[in-house]
Amino acid sequence: KVAIKGIERELICPACKELFTHPLILPCQHNVCHKCVKEILFAFEDSFADGGSESSNQSSPRIRISASSMDRLDRINRTGRKRNSLTPRSTLFPCPSCQRDIDLGERGINGLFRNFTLETIVERYRQAARAAIAIMCDFCKPPPQESTKSCLDCSASYCNECFKIHHPWGTMKAQHEYVGPTTNFRPKILMCPEHEMERVNMYCEICRRPVCHLCKLGGSHANHRVTTMNTAYKTLKEKLSKDIEYLISKESQVKAHITHLDLLLKETECNSERAKQEASQSFEKLYYVLEEKKSAALRAIETSKNIRLEKLQTQVEEYQGLLENNGLVGYAQEVLKETDPSCFVQTAKQLHVRIQKATESLKSFRPAAETTFEDFVVDTAKQEDALGDLSFHSNGLEIPEISEEQSRMYNKALVSWECPGKTDSADIYVLEYHKLNKEEESVTWHKTEVCGKSKVLSDLDDDSSYAFRVRGYKGSVCSPWSREVIMRTPPAPVFSFLFDDKCGYNNEHLQLNTRRTSVESRAGFSLLLGAERLQVGCYTTLDYIIGDTGIAKGKHFWAFSVEAYSYLVKVGVVPGNKIQKLFHNIPDLTSPRYEQDSGHDSGSEDAFLDSLQPCTLVTLGMKKFFIPDTPAAPKDPASRILPLPSCLGICLDCDRGRVGFYDASCMKCLYECEVDCSGLMYPVFALMGGAAVHLEEAVTAKHREYHDDI
Predict the structure, then answer these.
(1) pTM (whole model) above 0.85
(2) Which pLDDT belongs to residue 572?
(3) Residue 132 CB burial class (10 angstroms; 0-12, 13-18, ≥19)
(4) Which domains are present in the chain?
């Protein structure tokens, strides 16, 4: 006897939320109805075909794919698992119980076992729930009779008369095994789903599933540890029995936990009501403050209105008095009728002053009060932003910090952040950014949600500064905003190129990596070999290398880094018609015979040196950046030597004929000069001694903001 009434929860399919029907055992050991498995797989196939659209989720009224499952489907799409792949196709199934993507193998649903034990228990539960409902005979003519037995070999139910007819004595059918009336017909022998003609007789301890001898000999379980079915049966049954006995022995402890959980349920209800009340009180306070501010603002407007109306009304009355036979003019007309000089003079003096004021005000008419109320406009932009950020703040959530070392501004913006405690306590992050513009009075933040700790942004303007901030969310609780970090975009669109390994490339002195993004000078060994024949002087020369792509017009920017140990590196641009001059045997400028203080005329010497330079270059080396000695440069040589930035950039403006050299980490221009852009322009680099240059890598989709856990 089994206590059926209390196990309903274990008999419900996690997908359809109904009693199991032909349940299948997944590799994760969870059970799902056979029909539900097929419907979920069909829904996923439709989602793959439709690109994961929301409309594809409604293919079955019985099964609906959750948002988390659709997120996992999107990650599966991004991993590159394609339907027409040359590799053996493996079916992924989102388990509705453990929320993991389960690999069903090449056979898919056909490789799963039916859980006949669970079927039997479900059938017992159904019979207990519908004890008054009889199982009818499958072969009676209408009306059918109540069945008395079911044949396990025929998978049908019979009344007494039909059973005798279909199982006559002396035939093979008379040997069939029958039981009481049931709708659950299970096979007598469990067959292998991979080898349908073979019965399972072993148990794989690695995969935790029954297998046949062919699976062990040459199948997917060839190298797995297996045991006999009887041994596995005894072992698992013994373990299960012991665990059940232990749980039964701890019944009092379980009941105590249940009592404690009931108290927690009530406490949660009370605390939630208290939190609602406190939240309502907080908003009531805001309402009260707003109502007070509203009343004060309306009172101020009303007071100002009354004062202005009074002034204007007084002014109207004054001007009405200037009309004939009315007011001041009428009174003056009556005074003029006075014939006694002494009386007239006594009254006319004060009256004349009033008439003069009225005449002056008439000549320079101006209303006594303004009609507009521009001074009473309420600016609520900041308050609206603050109310938009209103949420539950928690001390448990750490404030994320934007890492300026890991963040980059190049062809796209890569913004990275981390938590001080190195723990990812937030479920999701919100990144906000806005362009710094002095002309705009109000700030408009652009918002984006991120699942990871970095985000790639591609919609930023060139030559602009942006402010970034981030906060973490865990449910409805959020952390305070991080410190704002300001980064500047490149002054022009990024120009992509590689080092040219053909045009003038000296593979004896220079070494390129396979991707042609890094070049290193290795001229030291050949210099030592040639030093035997040298007695005086130093005859080292620069080894040049150019970019493999030229620029004809427009404004472009590229960035690179120079190794700190580099002795001498020159960078700049070169016209296409002067490239050949770079690779000719140019006299060595570091040799003593070309000392600048040679006794010749310095002007002709400078002109000679300029003629030897077919390109525009600046000098780097020994962790320093050397500003060229030009009339516009500082006179003090020490002020022309700057620390070498970790990343340098070059901006070429062909339309204006100018080239600038930048500190690419903060996009600050270090030096700018004119350049002849009449022809095709190429990036150029020159190395001498031990030196290395690395082109800056573009920010691409590989900088993903989510973590793929498949």
Answers:
(1) no
(2) 94
(3) exposed
(4) 1-45+89-132 (3.30.40.10), 231-361 (no CATH), 394-489 (2.60.40.10), 510-585+612-695 (2.60.120.920)
